[in-house]
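Rotation project, supervised by the postdoc (A.L.). Task for the rotation student: set up a whole-complex structure prediction and record inputs and outputs verbatim in this book. Inputs entered:
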Amino acid sequence: MDDRVREHARTLVDWSARIEAGDDVVVQVEEGAHDLGVAVAEALGERGANLLSTYRSDELTRAYLRAHDGEFEANPGYELALYERADSVLILSGTNNTAGTADVAGERRQAYSKARRDIREARLDTDWVSTQHPTRAMAQQAGMAYEAYRDFVYDATLRDWEALAEEQAQLKEILDDGAEVRLVADGTDLTMSIEGRTAVNSAASVAYDSHNLPSGEVFTAPEATEGVVTFDVPMTIQGRRVRDAELTFEDGSVTDFAAAQGEAVLEDVLDTDEGARRLGELGVGMNRGVDRVTDNILFDEKMGGTVHLALGRAYDACLPAGESGNESAVHVDLITSMDEGSRLEVDGDIVQEDGRFRWE
Amino acid sequence: MDDRVREHARTLVDWSARIEAGDDVVVQVEEGAHDLGVAVAEALGERGANLLSTYRSDELTRAYLRAHDGEFEANPGYELALYERADSVLILSGTNNTAGTADVAGERRQAYSKARRDIREARLDTDWVSTQHPTRAMAQQAGMAYEAYRDFVYDATLRDWEALAEEQAQLKEILDDGAEVRLVADGTDLTMSIEGRTAVNSAASVAYDSHNLPSGEVFTAPEATEGVVTFDVPMTIQGRRVRDAELTFEDGSVTDFAAAQGEAVLEDVLDTDEGARRLGELGVGMNRGVDRVTDNILFDEKMGGTVHLALGRAYDACLPAGESGNESAVHVDLITSMDEGSRLEVDGDIVQEDGRFRWE
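Outputs recorded:
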């Protein structure tokens, strides 16, 4: 076994999920993530935690969903009982085919998802962490050779998380104290209010309210957005390609939009509900191990030297207790690179310029 | 997908486990049983049952057990809750390496197994069925080419179970009414009492108290065994090879034993406890689809034209209500072929001769 698989597992178990002896841990193994599953089982054994592994495969899901009549029972009790009693859920992604459910009707998928809301909530109430084992299918999605893609994944995942958490704390403090953010880049000049909002220092650990490994971003919930933004990082949204999306905001809402490719998808997203026209998230990527776009949001949005904005739902963690932010059925991230000539300002002070933070 | 995989899945779901709409079904997928998992997911979708798949792999188990200090928590609550609420558990075996846990100490294994007794009992209280997807590792264990092994597995599994259940009912009736069984074969002349005992018509369905697919045997719980028996079908017991084991019984207990190979294993088994020297089961194989020995007890003991006897624990289903039969920590099956010159008699009447039942 590649030593990095073991290091990945230990990072997941110790840094990210903070597993302790006696914890009831569900490990969800996707069909291509077997090797990581073995390493995680070993790490859980070392910690004296309990292990129950579930199996995830788009091929099983597709077969089940297509064969079912679509009248799904709400929150089957045996599965709910499992997640209600679990302490941690470790999600080991690793598909062998990113198009594995391409022929499942969206309606069927949504009906299934809707019927499982309480199970999902129970899982989100645990110390859950989602990570990814590199597979050939994911390498293909990234347009990379397998060996090179593995290097990419481990460079992004096996960071000095403690050091990054400290660096990110600086940005969190600035955002927590600040009232207005301005983004300036090629095709972008946007201002938004972040007054009274709390930024999350997302350092790949449940101890930082962060549930992704890798992570490496600081995010908050903006409002009252004004101006224009161009997202030059290509994305796959709802299975369709979107390039160079451009949004114009007035009084917090999108009033105009365009895209070099995938404009119809953008329109679909914006028309979902009222909240889909407002921003739910401003995120600043700070993971320098993510050095290229791989068409995988888990990595892309964490890329150092990028900023992402999400249309739709805001995270409660960013809002004053009891207050809820932008509401929407969607949360769609769009990414812009902060290259030469770009600036990120908070209350008029430059925090990042030409893609480098002022402390770098 | 091979059509036989789908037929296997439907046989499992409909004939064996009798799954109905709304049933809470756990599907345990072993690493090499993915394709059968997909077919079972489809069949469960068609029936409108609920699906939760767990993952089984000796590689995960080995990593976990070796890393653990051996002080296992008893019956972790989240897993117990899952099985206590499940209606059915479908176990899809299919290993990629039959020696996958060869370097896990027996003690560690036993400690783990002991700590999970309530979970095991909860699983046995469901409508559980164990079946096997053909893998290359299992073909290798059988000394067969993969293609030929697949044919073997499906010939054994895709039977006309209803017809076999009817045929087996004849033998069940004879055994239920009978008082004494006599087995005569090369190196064998054995009598035992089955008075007051109930035979199980094991027809690969929970509707017949049968939890194996394939099945195809009728078994009961004998006592007061007298005589000699030679088991000419080679077996792997506790990972070691046993050939031509010979047992001498007096007054129900083994008084002498020998084997051409693996005599020490036989001795280990017999010395486990007092019950290990007595018989817990007399089983008559009636599955004509199993036409050869493949070193896999799931198939070997069902082979038409064989009889197996188990040292150790008896099944409650064979005993009058409230009565318990032979007690032991082990249940070790040994098989003898009923070839030319063999006879199975019940109360002096010939039921099978030269390997053929009187109704054949």
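Student's summary: The longest strand of chain A covers residues 223-231.
Supervisor addendum: Chain A has a mean pLDDT of 96.
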